[in-house]
Amino acid sequence: MSSSILKRIPLQMFWPTFDPFLFCAFHNDVYPKANNLMGPDAPLNKRPLGQDFDGIDGWRMYHGKSIPGFPAHPHRGFETVTVVNKGFVDHADSIGAAGRYGEGDTQWMTAGSGVQHSEMFPLLNEEDVNPLELFQIWLNLPSKNKMVPPYFAMLWNEDTPVVKALDNKGLETQVKVVAGGLQNAEPSPCPPNSWAADSNNDVAIWLIDLPEKGEWTLPAAAAGLSRTLYFFEGEKVTLDEESASINEAFVLKSDSALALRNQGKKARFLLLQGRPIGEHVEQHGPFVMNTRAELQQAFHDYQRTQFGGWPWPRHDQVHDKSKGRFAEHGGGNV
Protein backbone atom coordinates (compact mmCIF):
# COMPACT_ATOMS: atom_id res chain seq x y z
CA MET A 1 0.00 0.00 0.00
CA SER A 2 1.18 3.54 -0.76
CA SER A 3 2.95 5.16 2.18
CA SER A 4 0.46 8.05 1.85
CA ILE A 5 -2.60 5.78 2.19
CA LEU A 6 -3.16 4.53 5.73
CA LYS A 7 -6.48 2.72 5.19
CA ARG A 8 -9.13 1.93 2.56
CA ILE A 9 -12.83 1.74 3.48
CA PRO A 10 -15.79 0.79 1.20
CA LEU A 11 -18.48 3.49 0.93
CA GLN A 12 -22.20 3.13 1.47
CA MET A 13 -24.73 5.96 1.78
CA PHE A 14 -23.30 7.17 5.11
CA TRP A 15 -19.57 7.64 4.82
CA PRO A 16 -16.94 7.02 7.52
CA THR A 17 -15.56 10.21 9.06
CA PHE A 18 -12.92 11.07 11.65
CA ASP A 19 -12.48 13.78 14.29
CA PRO A 20 -13.30 16.68 13.87
CA PHE A 21 -15.95 15.35 11.45
CA LEU A 22 -18.87 13.32 12.79
CA PHE A 23 -20.85 12.22 9.74
CA CYS A 24 -21.07 12.53 5.97
CA ALA A 25 -24.05 11.50 3.86
CA PHE A 26 -24.04 11.47 0.07
CA HIS A 27 -27.50 12.04 -1.38
CA ASN A 28 -27.69 11.17 -5.06
CA ASP A 29 -31.25 10.95 -6.39
CA VAL A 30 -32.74 11.36 -9.85
CA TYR A 31 -36.29 12.44 -9.12
CA PRO A 32 -38.96 12.27 -11.82
CA LYS A 33 -40.61 15.38 -13.17
CA ALA A 34 -42.44 17.44 -10.56
CA ASN A 35 -46.13 17.73 -9.85
CA ASN A 36 -47.62 21.17 -9.20
CA LEU A 37 -46.92 20.86 -5.45
CA MET A 38 -43.12 20.47 -5.86
CA GLY A 39 -43.26 16.74 -5.17
CA PRO A 40 -42.56 13.85 -7.56
CA ASP A 41 -45.15 13.24 -10.27
CA ALA A 42 -45.13 9.53 -9.48
CA PRO A 43 -47.05 7.10 -7.24
CA LEU A 44 -45.94 7.09 -3.61
CA ASN A 45 -48.27 4.41 -2.25
CA LYS A 46 -45.67 1.61 -2.39
CA ARG A 47 -42.99 3.58 -0.55
CA PRO A 48 -42.35 3.43 3.22
CA LEU A 49 -43.23 7.11 3.58
CA GLY A 50 -41.59 8.78 6.53
CA GLN A 51 -38.61 6.43 6.32
CA ASP A 52 -37.91 6.00 2.61
CA PHE A 53 -34.18 5.34 2.22
CA ASP A 54 -34.21 2.32 -0.13
CA GLY A 55 -33.64 4.14 -3.43
CA ILE A 56 -36.63 2.63 -5.25
CA ASP A 57 -36.41 3.66 -8.94
CA GLY A 58 -33.27 5.67 -8.14
CA TRP A 59 -34.73 8.16 -5.65
CA ARG A 60 -35.83 8.48 -2.03
CA MET A 61 -38.41 10.50 -0.14
CA TYR A 62 -36.30 10.29 3.06
CA HIS A 63 -38.56 11.53 5.89
CA GLY A 64 -40.80 13.51 3.54
CA LYS A 65 -44.32 12.31 2.76
CA SER A 66 -45.25 14.49 -0.23
CA ILE A 67 -42.01 16.39 -0.89
CA PRO A 68 -38.66 14.64 -0.40
CA GLY A 69 -36.39 15.76 2.40
CA PHE A 70 -36.15 16.13 6.14
CA PRO A 71 -39.03 17.92 7.94
CA ALA A 72 -38.40 19.90 11.12
CA HIS A 73 -35.92 18.26 13.50
CA PRO A 74 -33.57 19.56 16.24
CA HIS A 75 -29.79 19.77 16.57
CA ARG A 76 -27.40 20.82 19.33
CA GLY A 77 -23.63 20.88 19.76
CA PHE A 78 -22.22 20.70 16.20
CA GLU A 79 -22.47 22.12 12.68
CA THR A 80 -24.01 20.97 9.43
CA VAL A 81 -22.28 21.79 6.14
CA THR A 82 -24.60 21.06 3.20
CA VAL A 83 -22.86 21.16 -0.18
CA VAL A 84 -25.38 20.97 -3.04
CA ASN A 85 -23.98 20.10 -6.45
CA LYS A 86 -27.33 19.59 -8.21
CA GLY A 87 -30.91 20.41 -7.28
CA PHE A 88 -32.23 22.62 -4.50
CA VAL A 89 -32.80 22.66 -0.75
CA ASP A 90 -35.45 24.74 1.02
CA HIS A 91 -34.32 25.73 4.52
CA ALA A 92 -36.51 26.94 7.39
CA ASP A 93 -35.62 27.10 11.08
CA SER A 94 -36.81 27.92 14.56
CA ILE A 95 -35.09 31.31 14.67
CA GLY A 96 -37.12 32.47 11.69
CA ALA A 97 -34.46 32.10 9.01
CA ALA A 98 -35.27 30.67 5.59
CA GLY A 99 -33.70 30.09 2.21
CA ARG A 100 -33.50 28.21 -1.04
CA TYR A 101 -30.04 27.18 -2.20
CA GLY A 102 -28.49 24.72 -4.62
CA GLU A 103 -26.72 24.24 -7.93
CA GLY A 104 -23.29 24.66 -6.35
CA ASP A 105 -24.18 26.54 -3.14
CA THR A 106 -23.24 25.53 0.40
CA GLN A 107 -25.11 26.23 3.63
CA TRP A 108 -23.01 26.15 6.81
CA MET A 109 -25.12 26.06 9.97
CA THR A 110 -23.89 26.19 13.57
CA ALA A 111 -26.54 24.46 15.69
CA GLY A 112 -24.78 25.51 18.88
CA SER A 113 -27.14 25.70 21.87
CA GLY A 114 -30.01 24.34 19.83
CA VAL A 115 -32.06 24.91 16.70
CA GLN A 116 -34.82 23.19 14.78
CA HIS A 117 -34.60 23.24 11.01
CA SER A 118 -36.17 21.58 8.00
CA GLU A 119 -34.34 20.62 4.81
CA MET A 120 -36.75 19.86 1.99
CA PHE A 121 -35.88 19.14 -1.64
CA PRO A 122 -38.42 21.02 -3.80
CA LEU A 123 -38.80 19.62 -7.30
CA LEU A 124 -39.16 22.59 -9.63
CA ASN A 125 -39.01 21.08 -13.11
CA GLU A 126 -42.42 19.85 -14.26
CA GLU A 127 -41.18 18.87 -17.72
CA ASP A 128 -38.17 16.65 -17.02
CA VAL A 129 -36.26 14.84 -14.29
CA ASN A 130 -35.04 16.64 -11.14
CA PRO A 131 -31.57 15.37 -10.18
CA LEU A 132 -30.34 16.01 -6.65
CA GLU A 133 -26.73 15.55 -5.55
CA LEU A 134 -25.50 16.81 -2.21
CA PHE A 135 -23.22 16.09 0.71
CA GLN A 136 -24.28 16.73 4.27
CA ILE A 137 -21.25 16.91 6.52
CA TRP A 138 -21.40 17.16 10.31
CA LEU A 139 -18.48 19.05 11.87
CA ASN A 140 -18.08 18.87 15.63
CA LEU A 141 -17.80 21.90 17.91
CA PRO A 142 -15.29 22.01 20.76
CA SER A 143 -16.78 22.00 24.25
CA LYS A 144 -16.24 25.76 24.65
CA ASN A 145 -18.52 26.42 21.65
CA LYS A 146 -21.20 23.76 22.15
CA MET A 147 -23.67 26.31 23.53
CA VAL A 148 -23.02 29.32 21.27
CA PRO A 149 -26.08 30.92 19.63
CA PRO A 150 -27.26 29.25 16.39
CA TYR A 151 -25.95 30.81 13.20
CA PHE A 152 -25.95 30.05 9.50
CA ALA A 153 -23.89 31.31 6.60
CA MET A 154 -24.49 30.95 2.87
CA LEU A 155 -21.49 30.21 0.68
CA TRP A 156 -22.98 30.96 -2.71
CA ASN A 157 -21.64 29.12 -5.74
CA GLU A 158 -20.56 32.37 -7.41
CA ASP A 159 -18.42 33.25 -4.37
CA THR A 160 -16.85 29.81 -3.91
CA PRO A 161 -13.38 29.68 -5.47
CA VAL A 162 -12.39 26.98 -7.95
CA VAL A 163 -8.68 26.31 -8.41
CA LYS A 164 -7.76 25.17 -11.92
CA ALA A 165 -4.54 23.26 -12.52
CA LEU A 166 -3.14 22.06 -15.84
CA ASP A 167 -1.10 18.86 -16.02
CA ASN A 168 1.75 18.24 -18.46
CA LYS A 169 -0.76 17.13 -21.12
CA GLY A 170 -2.72 20.38 -20.78
CA LEU A 171 -5.66 18.67 -19.03
CA GLU A 172 -7.39 20.75 -16.37
CA THR A 173 -8.25 19.54 -12.88
CA GLN A 174 -10.71 21.71 -10.95
CA VAL A 175 -10.80 21.92 -7.15
CA LYS A 176 -13.77 23.66 -5.57
CA VAL A 177 -12.64 25.12 -2.25
CA VAL A 178 -15.57 25.17 0.19
CA ALA A 179 -13.27 25.46 3.22
CA GLY A 180 -9.50 25.72 3.66
CA GLY A 181 -7.23 27.68 1.39
CA LEU A 182 -5.55 26.17 -1.65
CA GLN A 183 -2.86 28.11 -3.50
CA ASN A 184 -4.18 31.69 -3.50
CA ALA A 185 -7.85 30.73 -3.23
CA GLU A 186 -9.63 31.64 0.00
CA PRO A 187 -13.28 30.61 0.46
CA SER A 188 -16.07 32.70 1.95
CA PRO A 189 -16.01 32.90 5.76
CA CYS A 190 -17.63 30.09 7.70
CA PRO A 191 -19.60 30.83 10.92
CA PRO A 192 -17.46 32.60 13.52
CA ASN A 193 -17.60 29.88 16.21
CA SER A 194 -16.77 27.01 13.87
CA TRP A 195 -13.73 24.80 14.43
CA ALA A 196 -12.91 25.77 10.84
CA ALA A 197 -12.85 29.50 11.68
CA ASP A 198 -9.36 29.10 13.21
CA SER A 199 -6.85 28.57 10.40
CA ASN A 200 -4.61 26.65 12.83
CA ASN A 201 -7.13 23.81 12.66
CA ASP A 202 -6.46 23.27 8.92
CA VAL A 203 -10.06 22.35 8.11
CA ALA A 204 -10.52 21.72 4.39
CA ILE A 205 -13.55 20.68 2.35
CA TRP A 206 -12.63 20.32 -1.31
CA LEU A 207 -14.44 18.89 -4.34
CA ILE A 208 -11.92 17.58 -6.87
CA ASP A 209 -12.86 16.99 -10.53
CA LEU A 210 -10.14 15.07 -12.36
CA PRO A 211 -10.64 15.00 -16.16
CA GLU A 212 -10.36 11.91 -18.31
CA LYS A 213 -6.65 10.95 -18.50
CA GLY A 214 -5.86 13.84 -16.18
CA GLU A 215 -3.29 13.98 -13.38
CA TRP A 216 -3.10 16.12 -10.24
CA THR A 217 -1.14 16.01 -7.02
CA LEU A 218 -2.93 16.61 -3.74
CA PRO A 219 -0.44 18.75 -1.83
CA ALA A 220 0.90 17.78 1.56
CA ALA A 221 -0.62 19.51 4.57
CA ALA A 222 0.48 19.73 8.21
CA ALA A 223 1.21 16.58 10.18
CA GLY A 224 -1.32 15.11 12.59
CA LEU A 225 -4.52 15.99 10.70
CA SER A 226 -7.45 13.76 9.89
CA ARG A 227 -7.46 13.57 6.08
CA THR A 228 -9.85 11.42 4.07
CA LEU A 229 -10.36 11.28 0.29
CA TYR A 230 -13.69 9.90 -0.98
CA PHE A 231 -13.85 8.57 -4.57
CA PHE A 232 -17.54 8.82 -5.51
CA GLU A 233 -17.66 9.08 -9.31
CA GLY A 234 -15.50 7.72 -12.10
CA GLU A 235 -13.97 4.46 -13.33
CA LYS A 236 -10.25 3.75 -13.10
CA VAL A 237 -7.93 5.86 -10.97
CA THR A 238 -4.56 5.33 -9.33
CA LEU A 239 -3.42 7.02 -6.15
CA ASP A 240 0.38 6.98 -5.91
CA GLU A 241 0.32 4.10 -8.46
CA GLU A 242 -2.13 2.12 -6.29
CA SER A 243 -5.36 1.19 -8.07
CA ALA A 244 -8.40 2.85 -6.49
CA SER A 245 -11.98 1.64 -6.71
CA ILE A 246 -15.01 3.91 -6.96
CA ASN A 247 -17.04 4.15 -3.75
CA GLU A 248 -14.00 3.89 -1.53
CA ALA A 249 -12.62 6.18 1.17
CA PHE A 250 -8.88 6.58 1.56
CA VAL A 251 -7.52 7.65 4.93
CA LEU A 252 -4.35 9.60 4.16
CA LYS A 253 -1.16 10.60 5.90
CA SER A 254 -1.77 14.34 6.08
CA ASP A 255 1.81 15.53 5.60
CA SER A 256 2.39 13.52 2.40
CA ALA A 257 1.47 14.55 -1.13
CA LEU A 258 -0.67 12.13 -3.15
CA ALA A 259 -0.54 11.71 -6.95
CA LEU A 260 -3.97 11.19 -8.58
CA ARG A 261 -3.99 9.73 -12.10
CA ASN A 262 -7.16 9.05 -14.05
CA GLN A 263 -7.31 6.30 -16.69
CA GLY A 264 -11.09 6.47 -17.23
CA LYS A 265 -13.88 9.02 -17.57
CA LYS A 266 -14.01 12.10 -15.35
CA ALA A 267 -13.37 11.19 -11.71
CA ARG A 268 -14.73 13.10 -8.72
CA PHE A 269 -13.55 13.17 -5.12
CA LEU A 270 -14.48 14.82 -1.84
CA LEU A 271 -11.67 15.70 0.58
CA LEU A 272 -12.36 16.21 4.29
CA GLN A 273 -9.47 17.37 6.44
CA GLY A 274 -9.03 18.91 9.87
CA ARG A 275 -7.10 18.91 13.10
CA PRO A 276 -8.80 16.60 15.61
CA ILE A 277 -10.60 18.34 18.47
CA GLY A 278 -9.53 15.48 20.71
CA GLU A 279 -12.43 15.65 23.16
CA HIS A 280 -14.72 12.85 24.28
CA VAL A 281 -17.93 12.70 22.23
CA GLU A 282 -21.34 11.63 23.46
CA GLN A 283 -23.91 11.51 20.69
CA HIS A 284 -27.54 10.49 20.55
CA GLY A 285 -29.30 11.19 17.27
CA PRO A 286 -29.28 14.93 16.57
CA PHE A 287 -27.43 15.96 19.75
CA VAL A 288 -23.62 15.84 20.10
CA MET A 289 -22.13 16.74 23.47
CA ASN A 290 -19.18 15.76 25.65
CA THR A 291 -20.91 13.95 28.54
CA ARG A 292 -24.03 11.86 29.15
CA ALA A 293 -25.29 14.52 31.54
CA GLU A 294 -25.04 17.15 28.78
CA LEU A 295 -26.99 14.86 26.43
CA GLN A 296 -29.72 14.42 29.03
CA GLN A 297 -29.83 18.19 29.47
CA ALA A 298 -30.16 18.63 25.70
CA PHE A 299 -33.22 16.36 25.59
CA HIS A 300 -34.71 18.13 28.63
CA ASP A 301 -34.14 21.57 27.09
CA TYR A 302 -35.66 20.54 23.79
CA GLN A 303 -38.75 19.09 25.47
CA ARG A 304 -39.11 22.27 27.51
CA THR A 305 -38.38 24.95 24.88
CA GLN A 306 -38.55 23.26 21.47
CA PHE A 307 -35.44 25.39 20.80
CA GLY A 308 -37.64 28.37 20.10
CA GLY A 309 -40.63 26.54 18.64
CA TRP A 310 -41.63 26.26 15.00
CA PRO A 311 -42.82 29.52 13.38
CA TRP A 312 -43.71 28.00 10.00
CA PRO A 313 -47.09 26.68 8.78
CA ARG A 314 -45.65 23.29 7.78
CA HIS A 315 -43.04 21.00 9.29
CA ASP A 316 -41.99 20.18 5.72
CA GLN A 317 -41.79 23.87 4.86
CA VAL A 318 -41.12 24.79 1.24
CA HIS A 319 -41.08 28.25 -0.29
CA ASP A 320 -42.98 29.69 -3.22
CA LYS A 321 -42.25 27.80 -6.42
CA SER A 322 -41.38 31.01 -8.24
CA LYS A 323 -38.63 31.99 -5.80
CA GLY A 324 -35.04 31.75 -6.88
CA ARG A 325 -32.08 31.18 -4.59
CA PHE A 326 -32.24 33.37 -1.49
CA ALA A 327 -31.38 33.47 2.19
CA GLU A 328 -33.34 35.32 4.88
CA HIS A 329 -31.38 35.46 8.11
CA GLY A 330 -34.30 36.51 10.34
CA GLY A 331 -35.55 40.01 10.88
CA GLY A 332 -36.15 40.46 7.16
CA ASN A 333 -32.45 40.54 6.24
CA VAL A 334 -32.41 38.89 2.80
TrEMBL record:
Binds 1 Fe cation per subunit. It comes from the Bacteria. Residues 310-334 are annotated as: Disordered. One of its GO terms (molecular function) is metal ion binding. Keywords: Iron, Metal-binding. Residues 59-139 form the Pirin N-terminal domain. This is Pirin. It comes from Marinomonas rhizomae.
